[in-house]
Structure formats: structure tokens, C-alpha cells
Design goal:
Blueprint lengths: L6 H17 L4 H13 L5 E9 L2 E7 L7 E6 L21 E6 H8 L3 E7 L5 E7 L6 E7 L5 E9 L27 E6 L5 E7 L4 E7 L8 E4 L7 E6 L3 E6 L15 E6 L9 E5 L4 E8 L3 E8 L2 E8 L11 E2 L6 E2 L8 E4 L9 E8 L2 E9 L4 E7 L10 E3 L9 E2 L5 E3 L4 E9 L5 E9 L10 E5 L16 H4 L4 E5 L21 H17 L8 E6 L1 H12 L6 E5 L5 H5 L7 H7 L5 H10 L13 E7 L8 H13 L8 E6 L10 H18 L6
Parallel strand pairs: 16-20, 25-27, 31-32, 31-33, 33-34, 34-35, 35-36
Antiparallel strand pairs: 1-2, 2-3, 3-4, 5-6, 6-7, 7-8, 9-10, 10-11, 11-12, 13-14, 14-15, 15-16, 17-18, 18-19, 19-21, 22-23, 23-24, 24-25, 26-28, 29-30, 30-32
Helix pairs in contact: 2-11, 5-6
């Protein structure tokens, strides 16, 4: 099966797709109902990225009416910019003031499949660099467009990642000068710039270490200057501030203070002139029960993305930070931080582009399981906030609940009408802690409809991931309403191996030799949903994608009777063989799941690897397994092998249907566009309804 272009294998996948479609034939009407509900909730003529000022231009993305894909535009800033309150004229050609930079609809028409990895406008606003994946294999080509002429430059680079920084040294061009070569394939190279554009950074990195060089952007021929040698287990990225310091966020203190513990993140700095002497000082330490997740830097402010007692928090601190005292290292709360008003402890925060180094405004996208996406501008100088855009949820009968924030002691200025609006009157969200096999408490988030949930009778869907320290996404998803409104429970298990709460070592406890903890945690959460009456004992489903597919499949191997159905999305199942394949494996994968070339680790992997532990002659749950033909992370043969082995091993008398659905044109990340994703989601929901025997309810 590993020869994916073998005609016999392609025929095999086509036959499996036909079998899956035949099995799902009686759900076509239900799929249409689900799809119609999802698309009806999407407002027409909406921003996908609201206007944000960069230099003299407002840049924004927008989906025009009757189109499936976004258009990337810009408009010159004027004294009155209330135009983006009713934006349709500025994308449909009715306004001559708008310049269309990139029309994704035209790209899809040209290539058939397109994923725009990223786009970046040059500092002089004359060029647009963007990356395109036209096959789904995440091998991007880089193109540069002249925004004055609209013509693509005679410049194209193939096989890049999905990140790009655009530099155009027009007055002193550099041609074919080798700046840096990374000879070790275990590391990737990220080329970026400090936000003030004074330095270009070259970061040779993995998920566990960094080696950063800088180039003076005003004197690029001066060459590379190394900031810090690579130290295993230490990651950091660099910023520069006009007051003569390099700032970095690192997951270990770079200073020699023995009092600082590892396992958290620290803000450190070093004078630019002393960088070769590695005179790093730790200037900002997290307080008790606080984790520093990320930083952003402006001319006058440092923005911190935090977790406090497990919940997201953001704040700004005035720069420069005074380091004149003997105790230069400071706690965040010692620096008069302004904590950004947020709507809910359970909210998800996605930073905006925030290009403008000189700005005092910080933009973020805020959502929660109860609240659709809100674009918020935080004015750090005035300590006020304004809601720029709130995604409307149309086609729903639920009334939203509007409220303001009240926090005593906070110096907050509210603009007129600035209120959060959510659906907490229609839906209930509960946070529980489930005791796992070894006594550790596992966070479990449970979501259901106040109106339709039926204790001990409702069907449920449990989601999990548990790898790479990534936090399980619980942001707003309007398609989730189609399950909740039918009485379903949707739950999220934050198992070890992911990232959660106040314990920065949560990831470590569920990776490598500790991977079995993740699986046991997921099983415990599933049992809790049933034992506490949230879900009927025979109506629990589970869903996991990629490494989350490993989690769900391994849990189903251990206790197949626990789940009525599972959905595995491009799942990582044959762990040993994949890790031994240099085309698919990476240093990050080996550190996450173990090194099968080491004998002791090989046998530990075999104990949890789903493909190597498919039980024989048991009643397996119904399974929908998805694959992507151009997947560069999980070979398309991996889900196919799993399906074949499960069918072979399962009890023929009582096991449920196991179907394989392969997207023949996409990669690991699937369809990048909303309408296609809704079709896929409708298919999965219809599968769950069918195999749980709920078609007539």
C-alpha cells in the first residue's frame, strides 16, 4: 500500500470510496439538512479579516456574496473610515478606491485546489509575497506580485513552508548571496524580522530547541550574528526594541539564577551591543499559577498572553521596563499591567496581525464555545476597548444574551454599546475534573443544549488530541449547533500530552514513554460522561484527527465496548513504521512519540501503537476513517491499512460498519474553504446519526 501511485492502490481507494458512499446513501437527505443549516448560519458579505491599518492602507479580507472564497483587498486610509461598517460596495467593484490584491476565487479557478499559506506586503507597500499549495501536500510555492502594475514578478520559489516575510532591498539589491544553510534535516529554518524592521532573524529550530542569528536590516552585508547557541530543551524567539535591547521569550531562564525553575516561560533581554557576551537578564517572571504563553512588542508596550489558574489572560505593560535596580527581575503585577477585558474564562484568543510597531492598539479575535468570533481593539494608552466586528449567527432561533463586564478595581473605559453577546441562555457549559487511572485530575469541558439535553438518554461526542503540547480547540463553531440542538452532548478531553491549565509539564506527562497516560485519560473521560448521566451508555461517539486519531483509536482498542462510533480524521495509526520513514517522520515526531530505533523505546511504542494493538474477535464500534491522498504527514496507506486490519480482526457477528473515505485531491489539512468543510462535517454528522440508530428521531 505504500506505493500510493500504484494503479491497483488507487483503484482500491476508489472502491473504498464507492463502498462508503453506498453505505451513506440513505443519509443524503440528512446530509443536505445538516449542510443547509450550517451554511444558513453564515451571513453573506462578511469580513473574514476586518480592516486593519498598516502604513497608509487599510488591509482586509472579505467573502463577496455568491462567492465561496475570500478576496484580499486594501483601501487608502482617510479621515472618515466608517466605510467598513457596510463593506460590500468596496469588494463588489462599486468602489474605485479599493484595490484587490489577491482573489482566491480566481486562484481556485486556475489551479482547482488552492491553499494560501500566508501573504505579506513589503514594508514599502509595493509588493505582495504569498505562498500557494496547489496539491494539498503542504509544499508551497512562493510568488511575488507587483502591486503597482498587478503583474507577477519573474520570481518564484517552490517547496517552501507556509510562512513568508517580504523584503525588497531595491536600492541595494542582493543577488545570489548565500546567507545561511542548515545542514541538519532535523531542523527547519524560519526567516523573519523584528517587529520594528531593524533586524532580520534566522531561526534554526525544532519544537524543542532554537538557534537564532540576526542581520542588521540597515546593513545586510554585515552578515549573520549568532544570538545564542543551541541548547537542547530551550526554545526562544527574538524581538528588538528602540531602547537598545533584544527581547526574547524562552522556555528556560537564560540567566544563571538558580532560583528560576524550568518548565515555564520567561521574558529575557540583552543589550544589543552585548549580545555576543550573552549578557541575558530575566526581566519578567510569571507569578504564582501563571504561565506566559506568548509576547508581542510595540514601541511603547509589551503585550503578554498568559494563562492564570488555567484560564486565558492578556495584559499590556508600559515600556521600557526599568532595569536599573539591583532586582531587575520583576513579577508581572509589579509593573502596573492593564489586563484586557475578556468575556469568559473559557474564551479562546487569537492575536490579530498587529503589524504597526508604533501603534498603541492591539487587535485580537476572541471567541468561546458560547460566543461567536469577536474582533476587539484594545487601546493600551487609554485602557479602553472597542468591538470592531462580531460574527453574526443567522438562521438560528436562539436569542443571544448580551452583558457587560464588571471587574472591581480595573480601570476600564467602555465605549457606548460595547457589550459581549453569547448564547449562554440557550446552551450550558460545564467544566469538570475527571480522576484518571493514576489519580491525576483531567479537565473535561462539557457542552449541551438547555432545551434538548435529556439526562442519561442523550447521544454524545467526545473530542481529544493530546500531543505536541497543543491546547484542544474549543472556540466557537456554528456547525456544532446542529448536534446540540438535536440533544447531543459535545465534550472536550484535555488529556496529558496536550497543553492545559497551570501545569507547564502537562505535555511531558503524555508524550514519549508517558503516551499511555493520554489514552488512559481519554478512556476515563468517556467513562465519566456515561457514569454521570451526560450521555446514554450506548450512544457515545469519539472523534480525533491526526495525533488525536491515535488517541481515539488506541482508546477504542482498549475498551471497544465503550464507544458506539468513532471518527478518525487523517489518523496517525502505524506509529513505528511512520517514525521509521524519513519522508514522513521528523525530529519533533520522534521526540513526541518515541524513537523506534532505540530498542527500549521501540517496545514502548508497540504497547500503544493503534495498528499494532487491534484486538481480535471483539465487537468493534462503527468507524468512519478519513484519509487524504496528498497527505505529507500521515501516508494515505496508513488509514487504509488500519481499516483492512480492523475488518479482518473484528467479530463478524456483532461488529459495526467500518468505512474509509479518501479525499483524492487534498492533503493533511483537508479542504481549506468553508463550503467544502461544511460538506465534510455534514457527512460525519450523518454517519454518527445513522450508526447510532437515530435516523428516525
Amino acid at each position: 500500500m505504500k506505493k500510493k501511485n500504484d494503479p491497483d492502490f488507487i483503484k482500491y481507494l476508489d472502491e473504498e470510496n464507492s463502498y462508503a458512499d453506498t453505505f451513506m446513501d440513505d443519509t443524503k437527505n440528512l446530509q443536505h439538512v445538516f449542510y443547509s443549516e450550517m451554511t444558513a448560519r453564515e451571513p453573506s458579505n462578511k469580513f473574514t479579516s476586518p480592516p486593519q491599518l498598516s502604513g497608509p492602507w487599510y488591509y482586509y479580507e472579505y467573502i463577496p456574496e455568491s462567492k465561496d472564497y475570500s478576496i484580499y483587498c486594501r483601501k487608502l486610509a482617510t479621515e472618515t473610515n466608517d466605510w467598513f461598517q457596510t463593506p460590500s460596495n468596496h469588494v463588489t467593484g462599486k468602489s474605485s478606491e479599493v484595490q484587490i490584491l489577491l482573489d482566491y476565487n480566481e486562484l481556485v479557478e486556475q489551479y482547482g485546489y488552492v491553499d494560501v499559506g500566508t501573504h505579506e506586503v513589503s514594508p514599502n507597500h509595493n509588493y505582495l509575497a504569498y505562498t500557494l499549495d496547489t496539491t494539498g501536500d503542504e509544499r508551497f510555492m512562493l510568488q511575488v506580485k507587483n502591486l503597482k502594475t498587478g503583474i507577477l514578478e519573474n520570481f518564484r520559489v517552490d517547496d517552501v513552508d507556509d510562512q513568508v516575510e517580504c523584503y525588497t532591498p531595491e536600492h541595494d539589491p542582493i543577488n545570489n548571496i548565500m546567507i545561511y544553510t542548515e545542514k541538519d534535516p532535523k531542523f527547519s529554518v524560519d526567516i523573519s524580522s523584528t517587529k520594528d524592521k531593524n533586524y532580520i532573524t534566522v531561526n534554526s529550530k525544532s519544537k524543542t530547541s532554537s538557534k537564532v542569528y540576526v542581520i542588521d536590516a540597515n546593513n545586510v552585508k554585515s552578515g549573520l550574528h549568532r544570538i545564542q547557541k543551541r541548547v537542547p530543551g530551550i526554545q526562544y524567539r527574538l524581538e528588538h526594541h528602540h531602547h537598545g535591547f533584544f527581547y526574547a521569550l524562552t522556555d528556560r531562564p537564560l540567566s544563571r539564577r538558580k532560583s528560576l525553575a524550568t518548565g515555564n516561560r520567561y521574558v529575557v533581554r540583552c543589550p544589543v551591543q552585548d549580545v555576543h557576551k550573552t549578557r541575558w537578564e530575566t526581566v519578567l517572571v510569571p507569578g504564582e499559577d501563571v504561565i506566559i504563553k506568548d509576547i508581542d512588542i510595540f514601541n511603547e508596550y509589551l503585550v503578554l498572553e498568559l494563562k492564570r489558574n488555567g484560564f486565558p489572560v492578556m495584559c499590556s505593560i508600559k515600556l521600557p521596563i526599568d532595569g536599573s535596580s539591583k532586582k531587575a527581575m520583576k513579577n508581572i503585577d509589579d509593573l502596573d499591567p492593564w489586563y484586557f477585558p475578556l468575556p469568559s474564562n473559557l474564551c479562546t484568543i487569537v492575536p490579530g496581525s498587529n503589524y504597526d510597531f508604533m501603534s498603541s492598539r492591539y487587535r485580537a479575535d476572541v471567541s468561546s464555545p458560547m460566543m461567536s468570533d469577536v474582533i476587539v481593539d484594545y487601546d493600551m494608552s487609554k485602557r479602553s476597548f472597542s468591538i470592531v466586528d462580531h460574527d453574526e449567527v443567522v438562521g438560528t432561533t436562539m436569542e443571544s444574551n448580551s452583558y457587560s463586564i464588571s471587574e472591581k478595581g480595573e480601570d476600564i473605559i467602555y465605549n457606548d454599546g460595547q457589550k459581549w453577546s453569547d448564547f449562554s441562555e440557550a446552551y450550558c457549559i460545564e467544566e469538570k475534573e475527571v480522576i484518571s487511572h493514576d489519580g491525576i485530575r483531567i479537565p473535561l469541558t462539557i457542552l449541551y443544549s438547555r432545551k434538548t439535553h435529556n439526562k442519561e438518554q442523550s447521544p454524545g461526542l467526545l473530542k481529544g488530541y493530546g500531543a505536541y503540547g497543543d491546547v484542544l480547540d474549543k472556540s466557537w463553531s456554528s456547525d456544532r449547533q446542529s448536534l446540540l440542538d438535536r440533544g447531543w452532548v459535545v465534550a472536550f478531553a484535555d488529556v496529558r500530552g496536550g497543553g492545559i491549565r497551570t501545569d507547564p509539564l502537562w505535555h511531558k506527562y503524555g508524550r514519549g514513554s508517558n503516551k499511555s497516560n493520554s489514552i488512559a485519560d481519554f478512556v476515563s473521560c468517556a467513562e465519566y460522561l456515561i457514569s454521570e448521566g451526560y450521555v446514554h451508555k450506548r450512544l457515545l461517539g469519539a472523534l480525533g484527527g491526526s495525533a488525536g486519531g491515535l488517541l481515539v483509536a488506541a482508546a477504542a482498542n482498549r475498551q471497544p465496548e465503550l464507544f458506539r462510533a468513532i471518527i478518525l480524521e487523517v489518523p496517525f495509526l502505524d506509529v513505528c513504521n511512520t517514525l521509521l520513514d524519513p519522508c514522513l517522520s521528523s525530529l519533533d515526531c520522534v521526540k513526541e512519540f518515541g524513537n523506534p530505533e532505540i530498542r527500549s523505546e521501540f517496545f514502548k511504542i508497540l504497547k500503544y501503537s493503534p495498528y499494532d494493538n487491534v484486538p481480535k474477535q471483539v465487537c468493534c464500534p462503527a468507524m468512519l476513517v478519513t484519509a487524504s491522498f496528498n497527505d505529507s504527514r500521515v501516508g494515505v496507506w496508513e488509514p487504509a491499512k488500519w481499516v483492512a486490519k480492523v475488518r479482518k480482526n473484528a467479530c463478524s457477528e456483532c461488529s459495526k460498519a467500518v468505512i474509509l473515505k479518501t479525499n483524492m485531491k487534498c492533503g493533511h489539512l483537508g479542504e481549506p474553504w468553508t463550503s467544502s468543510r461544511y460538506q465534510e462535517t455534514a457527512y460525519k454528522y450523518a454517519f454518527l446519526v445513522k450508526v447510532m440508530g437515530l435516523m428516525d428521531t
